[in-house]
Amino acid sequence: MTTDNDHWNRRLAEIAERHDVPGATLGILHGEELTEAAYGVLNLRTGVETTTDSLFQIGSISKVWTATLVMQLVDEGKLQLDAPLVEVLPELRLSDPGVTAKVTMRHLLTHTSGIDGDIFTDTGRGDDCLEKYTAVLADAAQNHPLEATWSYCNSGFSLAGRVVEKLTGGTWDAAVRERLVTPLGLAHTVTLPEEALLHRAAAGHMTQEGKQVVAPVWGIPRSAGPAGSIVSTAADLLAFARMHLDGGVAADGSRVLSADSAAAMAEHQVELPDKHTLGDSWGLGWERADWDGHRLIGHDGNTIGQAAFLRILPERGIAVALLTNGGNGAKLYEELYREIFDELAGVPVPHPLGPPATPVDVDPTPFVGVYERASIRQEMSVGDDGPVMRFSITGPLAEVLQEKPVDYRMVAVEPNLFVCQDPATGNWVPATFYELPTGEKYVHFGARATPRCAS
């Protein structure tokens, strides 16, 4: 392995610049050795330089931290993964009474509850925000029947955070601090914006008229904290990853999580309908991916103008973290991780799914229609130039992001599988059309299962 920091600083800079990423940090953990690199600026408006101790939003990687808190409570005998949540939250009310009675923590950690996953209602900055958010879920749609399929669910992790609060007697933020940040000795990991302000913190950036501009909002609502509000450095994130690699033991030898729970989090729980976006299966919080016969775990995170990537190869004791604040972070991740994992382990990073070399003849008309859930509306139509997916953000999220509908050109790959090209980045996004055993039609796009409207 090339452990020279200058080498990876140079490669990070070269690739990040090519993909319009304003600033980024990289961390590579290989056994006991940590390599760090930094590039660019934290904020194009202020020009503050990115350093390795700069804080970025890790977004949905926070879900693995929340899952770790949950498994600590399982270790302590305070929670059972397969017990109905109403045993801990008797006040829980969901739109489907049957789901209210049966939904478990395992459903939440594996994204199989069916609760509409993108409820971003801001319930305030108070310590009662998750309590209020849980009450909001009474009006959330049931996106799919319990356990019927897999759909990425932010809402479920906010609910899991509320369970953590009930069982610890404090806030989710306090649980992260007391149960993970302090035991792991993390000096640069926080959950609240007023804490992030005490450090060098990155601002997100978005593309506007072909240029990167500072995002209009810094962070997500506090009610979404357990799903995505941790702010950290690459080194601190890798210290968390190392604890999982070491079977739940911190660097100082203290036990943070039982070996059984650390192993269970990485074990197979459910297959994914779309195996081309995030991985092939899910554990208890962890994404699972197969890279040429090598099993990896990890997670990605996306907030408002920031993107984070974490991949762990347990068989070789390798973990890599990349934190970015705009531009095409996905392309930076793909190119950089391809170099790193080839050099460290000879393991190839799969190429994203794209159009087939030879066109595939598929009739798209059976899939034409409107597919909708909270915050998202997808309209598939067929025009003179072929099938198109119009993707619109709706509801509270639309007010924050202020983004116009986007038309994705679609190319068939298999009878039920298309790839859709993002006109802004050129990236290809898979769209899988399928039916539940009970006959309901869905499209799986962006890791979410979206039902077809009856009309």
UniProtKB/TrEMBL annotation:
<feature type="domain" description="Beta-lactamase-related">
    <location>
        <begin position="9"/>
        <end position="342"/>
    </location>
</feature>
<dbReference type="InterPro" id="IPR012338">
    <property type="entry name" value="Beta-lactam/transpept-like"/>
</dbReference>
<dbReference type="Pfam" id="PF00144">
    <property type="entry name" value="Beta-lactamase"/>
</dbReference>
<protein>
    <submittedName>
        <fullName>Beta-lactamase family protein</fullName>
    </submittedName>
</protein>
<dbReference type="InterPro" id="IPR001466">
    <property type="entry name" value="Beta-lactam-related"/>
</dbReference>
<dbReference type="InterPro" id="IPR050491">
    <property type="entry name" value="AmpC-like"/>
</dbReference>
